[in-house]
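Hi R.,

Here are the chain sequences for the assembly we discussed:
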Amino acid sequence: MTPAAGVGFKAEHFAEALAAPAADLWFEVHAENYMVDGGPRLAMLEAVRSERPLSLHGVGMSLAGAAPPDPDHLAALKRLVDRFQPQLVSEHLAWSRLDGRCFPDLLPVPRTNEALSRLADNIGIVQDTLARPILVENPTHYLSLADHSWSETSFLAELARRTGCRLLIDVNNVAVGAHNLGYDAAQWLQAINSDLVGEIHLAGHTLDAEGTLLIDSHDQPISDAVWSLYQGFIDRIGPKPTLIERDGNIPPFAELLAERGHAQDILGGRLALAA
Amino acid sequence: MLLEFQQDFAAAISEPTEGALSVYRNTSLAGCVDALRANYPVVAQLLAEEMFDAVAARHASECPPRRPVLTLYGARFPDWIAVQSWLHEVPYLAHVARIEQLFVEALFASDAEPLAMTQLQGRGDWQSLRLALHPATRFTWLSAPAMSIWLSQRENAPGALEFEWKAEGTLLTRPGLEVLAERLDRPGHRFLFGIRLGESVGTAAVATASLYPETDIGSLFVSLVNAGAFAATAHRS
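And here is the predicted structure of the full complex:
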């Protein structure tokens, strides 16, 4: 995939998404939403895929779970990958399944050697099954866990070294985590090796009702602070496929395309970094 | 250690909690409630928003998802509603939920060509003709006028319900990309049930006619074929 900007695909934007003239536009979907046997949703994705490159973004593999990936879920992901031939396949550094129960969320994990080995094994199983490397996304943080023995950026780099996976860097997650846990987002991004980055996510966030935590809500336009972090990051590492993510409070497609155009300008070096 | 951490964490967010932990609890719960609202729109309309949120959150805590595919979450919702005594003021609710559960199944079932009447021309031996149901075909018999309620709520804004209290059948088919919904009568239900059991068309027709002598079996069969209830392939003699 040439490093261009894409947009998260929403069914309500189907007609406009197919008609959009933007060069190099691509779409990303949550893989789980298409893990069904048939029907209109898969037909819609076929139509999108016939016009544009596609990225499959998984939210339910529970890579950081204490157990290996659920074989049924992995088989369902493989069927989608085989059928739609996505340019990118990604998952999260998180867990969401325990003792047969699934949590529709991305739960945090202490960065210990045990978690590192488990994650590396699970990523390896997924990559072996799909016969391709995947991208692993850095999580959002709300909670300070006591038991970390690795910094997040070195943990991500070590995972990539052990498994051959690459990284999906969610700049909004970095900004949200930096605010909630009190670290420096720009410094965090500075520690990421350009060669490991396979994709970037940009999204909006909200402040919680108590006014203390930022929530990775994906229901607002991308904030100025995130745009600025993104521009600095691209300026250092060069252009990378970048996705505009929006999952709630869905605006007209034109608004997402405008954000996508802004990212495209940054990728093309058409917006100079303020000196 | 990792397993222990995850067990403790899961237990912590399974109860009302505060601060950062509540973000995880709320996100997880909201994911379940939103999935139930998407899959049970008429149940949601019948209960009104606040009540539905409470019912869905309670269901999610008692019957959490077992798979990460929330598109298909909520298969246990109708049976769960049926045993909630606090919901018995709405006696048709579990039956309406059953229709919506079958609707989700029909919507996401495998694609297949439906059988057309033209494919049956020249196949005169009804006694040996066996048909397979289309993979999206769902039907059931409900001891409440749930199909009338569901159809009226689906088409109209929420309002007063007027219906005659009687049992009704439901037939859902998806010959193309759209689910077709209609009421099913007792003869239609008996006929389809026979086909599902593996009876030949002739056997199912004779059984239906002897139970319901007033029925025009020919028109019943044509209407089921035209609704897309049968698959084009796998009919064998």
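Chain B has a mean pLDDT of 93. Chain B touches chain A at residues 1-3, 5-7, 9-10, 13, 20-21, 23-24, 27-28, 31-32, 35, 64-72, 107-112, 135-136, 174, 177-178 (CB under 8 Å).

Let me know if anything looks off.

Best,
T.
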